[in-house]
Design a protein that fits this description.
transmembrane, glycosyltransferase, transmembrane helix
């Protein structure tokens, strides 16, 4: 039998309290970042306090998740998303890049060839709103997303408010697809659907970076998991429904890869699983059909959108132009560069390139090994794909907190041990408070986080003294 999160024997931990405490934390975050004129230190302190309140509430709900009906978790997800629909774009300015790329495409320029400064003008308000790192770079996204951004630009023009709202609708569509697919995938992998919904759908990273941050990773992940479910659903069927469902799944995952190419890794794993289970004739169909299906969808989107295949050219370079401080390979490069500076040598860029190359080679080796283990039935394909995304984060040249959603969505439905889930939850919680809700300089950030720690710690201390945070004892569960 599967391992699930332990069930509480007797506890004062109240689901309703946790639900609305998290909701309150979100409302606080939205209010203090709304531009009401608070000093930046207080914006950071109160914003981080709100974020931490949500994260702690989410962790508390995780202790109860195994026994919760799915509809209750859906209700919590909806109520937590609603306040964030009115929030300013938080945690990054990528939505400004989306706006610029949509306008570039709407004006007839090749968004895979020119950046905002060249296409829109260096003095354009839209260009100036884009991070200086990306003003001269072409779009790094697939044609499916750029076509959607172009459509939004055609509706909203250069007005940021409707642009944010329309892009949030895309994110919500991705979240809705996740809500449909996650419990179904979890059942296929022998995992509690409620636990999967808690760990992935209610994850703070979905709230912060898909709803509030308006990142296209939400749409990509939603299409990917929905497509995987359709493929696996088809694989379990017979008759005419089988190829139809598999084809629909391939189309959905391929569409996800045409938002962000990384989604193609998931298609490889379900492809290996289909190949393993097929007859000799069926293996030929799988080996030829899945790549052909992906290619056909990609060609249809690239040509049908009129954007062409320029996105293939920019796959390898745009996102890596900025050295992500969260990427372990870059950290090693920074370390070597720092040592080099002690001796008057500038080694940083060269070291980062070397470690990025090593990371890429190791990543390919890890992916190949995981594919082989999946073929040998040592790993569930969803688990293998989730571990591959994790390897991309550890070994890749660019890491952002929202990238963690790639692996969270698949590991949430395939991790069968309580310990593994809580490790993933702990990483999500850490990333859930890692980025500040507002910028204000190093001093404001440091003081803001210190104040937030004091507020949170003081509140927990008072609640503990008043016996409002009772000890929770858990019995082992064999179900």
């Amino acid at each position: 039998m599967q391992n699930v999160l332990p069930a509480p024997e007797k506890t004062g931990l109240n689901l309703r309290t946790l639900h609305w405490a998290g909701f309150t934390g979100i409302v606080v975050l939205v209010l203090v970042t709304s531009g009401i004129g608070l000093p930046s230190v207080l914006v950071v302190a109160l914003g981080v306090t709100g974020m931490a309140t949500l994260v702690l509430s989410w962790l508390g709900i995780g202790r109860l998740a195994a026994g919760l009906p799915e509809r209750r978790l859906y209700w919590i997800a909806v109520s937590w998303c609603v306040p964030l629909l009115a929030a300013r774009p938080l945690f990054s300015g990528d939505i400004n890049s989306y706006l610029a790329q949509g306008l570039i495409a709407a004006k007839g320029f090749d968004t895979y060839l020119v950046g905002p400064a060249e296409a829109l003008g260096a003095d354009s308000p839209v260009t100036l709103a884009v991070s200086h790192y990306w003003r001269d770079t072409p779009a790094p996204y697939g044609p499916a997303f750029v076509a959607l951004a172009r459509t939004i630009a055609g509706i909203a023009g250069d007005d940021l408010v409707p642009t944010v709202l329309l892009h949030r609708l895309l994110g919500l569509a991705g979240i809705a697809l996740m809500a449909w697919a996650l419990p179904r995938l979890a059942r296929r992998a022998g995992v509690s659907p409620s636990i999967a919904l808690w760990l992935a759908l209610l994850n703070p990273l979905v709230l912060w970076h898909v709803v509030a941050g308006v990142h296209n990773d939400g749409l990509m992940v939603g299409l990917m998991v929905a497509g995987l479910e359709l493929v696996l659903m088809g694989a379990a069927r017979t008759g005419a429904a089988r190829p139809a469902l598999i084809a629909a799944g391939v189309i959905a995952v391929s569409a996800a890869a045409n938002v962000k190419i990384v989604a193609v890794a998931a298609l490889l794993f379900v492809g290996v699983d289909l190949f393993r289970r097929a007859t000799p004739a069926g293996r030929v169909a799988v080996a030829l059909g899945l790549p052909a299906g992906f290619a056909a969808v990609t060609v249809a989107i690239s040509l049908g959108s009129g954007l062409g295949f320029g996105w293939v050219r920019v796959l390898s370079g745009v996102s890596g132009q900025v050295h992500s401080w969260m990427a372990p390979t870059n950290e090693l490069g920074f370390l070597v560069g720092g040592v080099g500076k002690l001796f008057g040598a500038d080694l940083t860029d060269g070291a980062i390139k070397v470690f990025s190359l090593i990371g890429a080679i190791l990543g390919l080796a890890v992916g190949a090994r995981l594919l082989w283990l999946t073929y040998r039935e040592k790993l569930h394909p969803l688990y293998g794909a989730g571990l591959t995304f994790a390897a991309m984060l550890v070994l890749g040249p660019v890491v952002q907190p929202w990238y963690l959603l790639w692996t969270v969505a698949l590991l949430a439905v395939s991790l069968t041990t309580s310990r593994g889930r809580w490790i993933l939850a702990g990483i999500s919680a850490l990333f859930g408070v890692l980025l500040p809700p507002a910028n204000g300089g190093a001093v404001s950030l440091a003081l803001g986080y210190l104040l937030a720690v004091g507020l949170i710690g003081g509140t927990l201390f008072v609640l503990k003294r008043k016996d409002l945070l009772p000890e929770i004892r858990f019995r082992k569960s064999r179900t």
